[in-house]
Amino acid sequence: MQPMAINNQRRKLLKGSFGAVALSPWLTACSSTAHEDKKASLISCSRTANGRFGAVVADSEGYPIHSISLPERGHGVAISPNGELAVAFARRPGNYMQLFSIKTGQSYSITAAMPNRYFYGHGVFSSDGLTLYTTEGEKDTSEGVIGVYQLQGTQLIKVKEFSGFGIGPHEVIRFDDTTLAIGVGGVHTKGRVPVNLESMKPALVYLSTETGKVLESVGLPDHKLSIRHLSLTGDGRVLCGQQYRGEPEDGVPLIAVHRRGESLQLLNAEPEEWLRFHHYIASIAVLGDHVLATSPRGNCYGVWNLATNKLVEVVSLADASGVVVNNSDSDQPQWHISSGTGRTINRTEHGDVTSHQTNIMWDNHWSKVPQV
């Protein structure tokens, strides 16, 4: 496939990106040389009080180092394995992805979705960092697509697509060097409005990176549990967090764990405890024997013991957003948790907590910068 000629949609995105450079004072300040002594550790999309959007490179406490202007609201961020480049994805149904330098905060190419496609907000690099896999959909049908892009200098060039695995893919992670795991939500939408709730077919899908072939696909008993966000355990299991599309009073399990070749196994909590999460899991991350899941709608996060699949604790946190595990920046591995109010929390598996108040309205996900 040849590189696409620039089209009107791409021109609008470029204009919007450059037109949003006049940011609030803290965004301007966090790209200054005064922050060069900080180590880049975390990246997330963000919002500002004046309604602008960006991606922020931050230290391990969530304090900003660089900011990258985005033309519209962002969602997930993919980071190259060598820790040099990152890609911010538009929130679904999104029209752009923005490549930038983690070290300098410099924006590189902005890639517009093809005219009959949109982005679902997530992507992941191959283990060698030369290929980017993105979740996309057909506008008219929400038929799922994995876009395959080659990194050529500071350009992302689409070379092929994988399809035929389901409707409404959301997060994609690298299961191993030849396999992707995809949270397929099953929801056909017009814009952000669902139109097939009675017939939706969510699934956790494993896909070959070489051929695009479906290697395995598993679903949940309740077809209104839309599989969305993923995390990988140290022993090769996949955690998936769901959005429930059923009745408001239903307290249904929102997290499941899967080992290849077996069925999905639900994590346990009482119905009233599940209702605390308001039917939505935003981010999940595994540390040791425990998984932590956030819910901005529920203003809380929960911790489960994976040895027993039982809920250990629910903690109130206004607009609880991203969570990611840090195994490298401290003596003790810990979760980093963000919130839309600017509060950040570092928490060990044993429950030791430190918190900080930043001036950033963090969006739903955090990504960890590898220390290489």
Automatic annotation (TrEMBL):
Pfam families, sorted: DUF1513
Against SUPFAM superfamilies, the record matches this protein to: YVTN repeat-like/Quinoprotein amine dehydrogenase
Cite the InterPro entries for this sequence.
Answer: Quino_amine_DH_bsu, UCP028101, WD40/YVTN_repeat-like_dom_sf
- The superkingdom of the source organism is Bacteria
Name the chain's protein: DUF1513 domain-containing protein
Q: Which organism is this protein's natural source?
A: Aliivibrio sifiae
